[in-house]
Amino acid sequence: MVYQIPVLSSSGTRELSAELPAEINPHLLWEVVRWQLASRRRGTASTKTRGEVAYSSRKIYPQKHTGRARHGDIGAPIFVGGGTVFGPKPRDYSYTLPKKVRKAGLAMAVADRAREGKLLLVEDFAGVNGRTKEFLAWAKGAGLNGEETVLLVAQDERVRRAARNLPWVVTLAPEGLNVYDILRTERLVMDLAAWQAFQARLGGEA
């Protein structure tokens, strides 16, 4: 489907035609987000088994004639402070996802923002040279007032630096554009360099 996407520049606003998916598959987006979050998990959680807790292994009381149940060492899982049964151990949570699925998910996420009128392309961030107040002045002129969360994808590091301290803005370099961050913010703002990088990813490898 062809979308008409607004392009903002210091000389005014124009529109750019872009071919993006017409249908959005929520389950496919869920698959990509699940894959992303699994890849980010550190997997460092670790509990001690009964063989690793620092207790004596002596028998805590005689086997018979106490009127109580039979027990061995105090590090058994049944006791408070004892070892853990089937607890977490360090592991890798990441798994592979087909490149076609990853590319389709990214295209659908961007298409969803374009369909909602929440995608804005920027030709130049006039007057933004690394300071937050400069970005706030530009954002006000672009109709971004902080009422919606914004994902800002910009090639210029000065633009990202100017916006990164704002609580309603998430900043990314073009190569970092991903489905999870698109879906967790309400508006998507990209410069033309980021847009071209996005188009190249769709045409090449994810």
Automatic annotation (TrEMBL):
Give the Gene Ontology MF terms in alphabetical order. rRNA binding; structural constituent of ribosome
Write out the entry's keywords from A to Z.
Ribonucleoprotein, Ribosomal protein, RNA-binding, rRNA-binding
Q: Which GO terms describe its cellular component?
A: ribonucleoprotein complex; ribosome
Keyword Ubl conjugation in record: no
GO terms for biological process? translation
Record keyword DNA repair present: no
Concerning SUPFAM superfamilies, the annotation shows: Ribosomal protein L4
InterPro entries (UniProt xref): Ribosomal_uL4, Ribosomal_uL4-like, Ribosomal_uL4_dom_sf
Top-rank taxon, per record: Bacteria
The record ties this protein, via Pfam families, to: Ribosomal_L4
Q: Mind telling me which HAMAP family this protein's record contains?
A: Ribosomal_uL4_B
* PANTHER family linked: 50S RIBOSOMAL PROTEIN L4, LARGE RIBOSOMAL SUBUNIT PROTEIN UL4M
Q: Which family does it belong to?
A: Belongs to the universal ribosomal protein uL4 family.
**Any idea what job this protein has?**
Forms part of the polypeptide exit tunnel. One of the primary rRNA binding proteins, this protein initially binds near the 5'-end of the 23S rRNA. It is important during the early stages of 50S assembly. It makes multiple contacts with different domains of the 23S rRNA in the assembled 50S subunit and ribosome.
* Quaternary structure annotation from Swiss-Prot or TrEMBL: Part of the 50S ribosomal subunit.
Q: What is this protein identified as?
A: Large ribosomal subunit protein uL4
Q: Which organism is it from?
A: Thermus oshimai JL-2
Q: Name the gene that codes for it.
A: rplD
